[in-house]
Amino acid sequence: MAAAAEGRSAHSRAQPREGEAMENDSTLGRLAAVANTENMEDVFKGEKILEVKTEGVQTKPQEPLPPAGSHSVPAFYLPRGRPQGAVDVDAVIARMKETFSQFPLRRATMEDMGRVAKACGCPLYWKAPLFYRAGGVCMDSVSVNRFVHMWRNVLHTCHDDAARFVHLLSTHGGNYLVQEDFFPFLQDVLKTHPGLAFLNQPYTFSNWYIMTVIQRIFYTVNRSWSGRITCAELRRSTFLQNVALLEEEPDINRFTEFFSYEHFHVIFCKFRELDTDHDMLIDPRDLARHNDHAISTKMIKRVFSGAVTRGRKVQKERKIGYADFVWFLISEEDKKTPTSIEYWFRCMDLDGDGVLSMFELEYFYDEQCQRLDSMAIEALPFKDYFCQMLDLVKPQREGKITLHDLKRCKLANVFFDTFFNIKKYLDHEQKEQASLLRENESDGPQLSDWEKYAAEEYDILVAEEAAGEPWEGGYEAELSPVDQKLSALRSPLAQRPFFEAPSALGPLDLYESGGDDLPPS
User: Fold this and answer.
1) Is the pTM above the cut of 0.70?
2) How many Å is the Cα radius of gyration of the chain?
């Protein structure tokens, strides 16, 4: 009897209670249904409703999940701009048709595109991109139907000025601009802006002016160093605002950020001073003569190492062209801008780990000490100066200076000059750190270091030209230094192809961006 009771007890323990039976049967039924389902993904998406029946029990069907592309999730990647509301496309098209009706055969030539651009609501100097995008490359004029079709498509697909400008200029169908894309646009600016009329004369250097402007655009706008200007980079820059103001300001030299002829004149003459053999290339010995050998030999080598230059030709032949020189000169004369800080950080970061170590700083400081000794100036030991630089920069990581640290520091120019520019280093030493900070923090708009340098150098060039003018006695004076440089160029430049666009620089993937300064490419 005891054994029978024990058996009944074991049997009762083995039998689940009524609620447990329902739950277990439901679970097993679901697993069996899943196992027999050929498309597992359909099960997880809730596209198949599992119904499992037991004896008198039916499980509750699962509710389907919302589809992945639900309209409740707002779009966050909008390369062509966020729609700002309904655009009255029909009204815009009506204005365009009315404008075209005033032209013979309702066809617009390049000379008519200024009025068409205004009818589209665009700045005046969008006229060339509008003309070429509508088919003006192959024809002398564009028809109203062809232009309306083009602009209607632009209004439907591009939702802000940056996206429209990129779409009009791009010749490869991408959402970015390369250097060659700017050439037709800048050619039209050069031909039609009153402040550049003198460059349309024979034996002028209009193509070199265009190349200078293109390099300055990429220097300022292309924050990713990718060689491709995206819509996002264009929105964050002031380039389109400068383009819009071109029609209102006849003095081209007021556009110091991109279009100034005076700045081009300074850059071009500086390049020619160093290019002694007139081959439009500069080797390390030529570049070392800049500013009377102010830059250290080690830094000159780094400039030619490929850290900041384009193409393989630099590494093979150890020479840089005019485009690379534009970047070098602006970076050398103004070390406070984001691009110039990145430029010299790349040069000083010998191992490319994104950190300036004590070893790398000592590598450059050793040559500075030698040059100071040759000038009978006592230099501080490196450890003492290293501590001073840490106090100046205040890095977030002890003993390691990053790109972000230098961008936060308001005296990045002092930091860089200390390690590779002997003349500017001595100039900074004569000033107190407090006075340097006051110069950076003074109220009101100020000229940048580059603008100050360009203005001073241009005045010097003008003075040299004035000194070579004919005197009252009527004797013809010798050519001024500037005229000599330009006249020497006319023959070789006439035989040299202009636009040899360099390949893109590599993206700054090794360096931290320091916030939004360097958007991902």
Assistant:
1) yes
2) 34
